[in-house]
Amino acid sequence: MEVLQAIISKYDFPKRDINSSVQIAKIESFSNLKLPEDYVFYLENYLGIDQFIGVEFIKLWSLEEIIEANKSYKIVEELKRTIGIGSNGSGEFIGIEIDQFENVKVILSPFIDLNSKYNIVIGTSFTDFLIRLDHKIEWFS
Fold this sequence. Notes:
- This protein is of the alpha+beta class.
- It contains 6 helices and 6 strands.
- It comes from Flavobacterium psychroterrae.
- This is SMI1/KNR4 family protein.
């Protein structure tokens, strides 16, 4: 978690006042997924962000926004074993996909025509996703 905390600190993510494990349980129940530990740490301790990290713009949804955003875009409904966690401020969402072997991928996928064939892997964990952003690794290079 040290690397994750260093990146969060570097980009001055806003801290959450109250830890909300009840809300985490609701999200996991809604998505039928066990969220990765590093992402749960982020949700429990920080609010959503809306900023550039490296060369990419990201908007990570707050704990309180995740279920409603996934419902309105039908992400969980259409893409099994995937939950949206934010967007790139354009036409794509950032999501966490967990396969049947519990392998995690952070993906970028279009909001329109929700189909996993359009997924672009942008991290092998939430921490890896932020490391890649911090190292200015472009998503489409």
